[in-house]
Design a protein that fits this description.
The structure is a homodimer.
Chain A lengths: L2 E7 L3 H15 L4 E4 L4 H7 L5 H8 L3 E6 L9 H13 L4 E7 L17 E7 L3 E10 L7 E9 H16 L5 E6 L5 H15 L6 E6 H10 L6 E4 L1 H14 L7 E5 L7 E5 L16 H13 L3 H17 L8 H13 L1
Parallel strand pairs in A: 1-2, 1-3, 3-12, 5-10, 8-9, 8-10
Antiparallel strand pairs in A: 4-5, 4-11, 6-7, 11-12
Helix pairs in contact in A: 1-9, 1-11, 5-6, 7-8, 9-10, 10-11
The structure holds 3-isopropylmalic acid (IPM) (2 copies).
One 3-isopropylmalic acid (IPM) sits at the interface of chains A and B.
Cofactor (chains A, B): Mn(2+); Mg(2+)
Keywords (chains A, B): Manganese, Metal-binding, NAD, Oxidoreductase
InterPro entries (chains A, B): ICDH/IPMDH (IPR050501), IsoCit/isopropylmalate_DH_CS (IPR019818), IsoPropMal-DH-like_dom (IPR024084)
Chain lengths: 343, 343
């Protein structure tokens, strides 16, 4: 039976993760869950970010369910680099999966898009590019200062994430993959991505393909978000594009993500895209839908596609039945989702 | 009297540039304009992209008015890197200026935003970052291939563009500058940008400031584009953000840009953001508004703020009087704008 590490984290993380667990228990009884304290609370108490012993213990789990990390009391970048990004790198979570869906019953800020019309998934590379941490500076704090950041891209890293995107497209109805890069400016990395895309594409003759520059896709996410099915792109482009995708599908309040090691050699992390929202923490009014959808991704990854689908369907029912703008109670939503999903 | 080099370029470039010239002539009679053939037509005819003799002649002008460059017949990247980006670098056009305005009479794809509510300008760095062309690859076309792209950032380059942004904010009503970067991941370049921003800010105590990560701003451009006044950011972030900005203000059909050397040691380039649109070229139906707004930026840069404003006002009248979705005739729009601006 699956062993899940639970990192509730900070702010509303605790509240929403509790609902995600409730829903997992409802559809897949018997999952073992172990809690780990990581995030701003641990850091502020002990100065630790990801103790080695915790890292080793996490490695023994099948997946990590994460609530939210971060608090204004911690200097920016510390927990992001030391915890969130570190997990992606040490556990080789090279597929950063971000579904973008305009759920029936919800509405987009885009006037021309109707509920149900947006349904794509971004496969963002998670272990390379500008996130490699390869950079430095010279002559700091002098007029001669120079600072660099290097984007590192390997055929190994690019090929495996592109292949994952094609495999996902093959399981979807529209079977289309859009490669997004900036080949007209980033000639070397762009060429590696484009040539690798061509090579992998030959293995998937039934999948339609297209290429778009990142700036063009950023625009099309506003003007024609309906056109996408599976999008594959590099780490930084994926970071930006998925936030636009979340915005046009109603905000990051509903957006789920998985940082996935597809081979399951290491645990994958599943977490809502939203932050810890300290302003509403502890009030029981955070919407747990993004955390629950992350749990749905987790279930699928662990080989429980039916349970995953039932959770997603429960969310669909929940969202379709909400009055526009109505307040939510975290616990009640969790209860309803658990009941729907296990019915 | 000002000497302008005119590069009509490809596709609809010729048609829209003709209207921009018409409007300039109307508000500032006596400007000398010399035409240069550059772009896909020259490249396909002679294989040349930016002949050295042309580059030297361009250097003798006060500004370059550019229509549009590019055609499907030219391999992607060739004209972008060899001409458009090259001009930015050789003429040290470090301020890439991109106003974003939701004009009265036009409408945004965003349901919650009303005409007149969006009015900001992005000051995008134009000569550094990932556009430096510093990168390479090893073991090409083998499983061991690695490709790099390096973002180069200097205190010199960062400081001058940030100072320009503050100076622009000081001349605007809201007096607010938003710095956009990704300091939580790009630690070295991000720190240089953030520290330099702090230092320059001390010179402008009457300007309000804020910082946002690039992914957050990408989202806010959809949810709250009204909040921005002046945005300063690096070359690649600016590329992506300005395309979103164009999308939420009604599309790149209306977006103008300037690649500016503020000291006027070298000519600055002014061009519509839209491309050469080969599909509608030669039909007389391209909207010249973006080209004319670029001419307005040109006039301001050359020290003619009143003429610049009159051109912008003519555009405002034109857009306010258009029936939604009505077709435009390039020549007629140009005639109306010239008449309004010189009235
Ligand atoms: C917190 C930050 C480091 C992270 C990223 O840039 O990947 C976040 O924006 C995300 O998208 O998961
Ligand atoms: C054509 C391309 C090289 C260019 C850029 O990336 O700067 C364009 O997208 C722009 O924004 O001017």
């Amino acid at each position: 039976m699956a062993r899940i590490a639970v990192v509730a984290g900070d702010g509303i993380g605790t509240e929403v993760v509790a609902q995600a667990r409730k829903v997992i228990d409802a559809v897949l009884p018997g999952v073992t869950a172990t809690e780990y304290e990581l995030g701003a609370s641990l850091y502020n108490r002990t100065g630790e970010i990801l103790p080695e012993s915790v890292q080793s213990e996490l490695a023994e789990h099948d997946a990590i369910l994460l609530g939210a990390i971060g608090d204004p009391s911690v200097p920016p970048g510390v927990l992001e680099r030391g915890l969130l990004l570190k997990l992606r790198f040490v556990f080789d979570q090279y597929v950063n999966l971000r579904p973008a869906r305009l759920w029936p019953g919800t509405s987009s800020p885009l006037a021309h898009v109707k509920a149900g019309e947006i349904d794509f998934v971004v496969v963002r590379e998670g272990t390379e590019g500008l996130y490699a941490g390869a950079g430095g500076s010279l002559h700091r704090d002098t007029p001669a200062e120079v600072a660099t950041e290097e984007s590192l891209n390997t055929r190994h890293g690019v090929e495996r994430v592109i292949r994952d995107a094609f495999a996902r497209a093959q399981r979807r109805e529209r079977r289309k993959v859009t490669l997004v890069h900036k080949t007209n400016v980033l000639a070397h990395a762009g060429s590696l991505w484009a040539r690798t895309f061509e090579a992998v594409r030959a293995e998937f003759p039934d999948v339609e393909t297209e290429y778009q520059h990142v700036d063009a896709m950023a625009m099309f996410l506003v003007t024609q978000p309906q056109r996408y099915d599976v999008v594959v792109t590099d780490n930084l482009f994926g970071d930006i594009l998925t936030d636009i995708a979340a915005a046009v599908t109603g905000g990051i309040g509903l957006a789920a993500s998985g940082s996935i090691n597809p081979e399951r050699r290491f645990p994958s992390t599943f977490e809502p895209v939203h932050g810890s929202a300290p302003d509403i923490a502890g009030k029981g009014i955070a919407d747990p839908v993004a955390a629950v959808l992350s749990a749905s991704l987790l279930l699928d990854h662990l080989g429980h596609p039916d349970e995953s689908r039932r959770v997603a369907e429960a969310v669909a029912v929940e969202l379709a039945s909400r009055a526009p703008g109505a307040a939510v109670r975290t616990e009640e939503v969790g209860d309803r989702l658990a009941a729907h999903a296990s019915a």
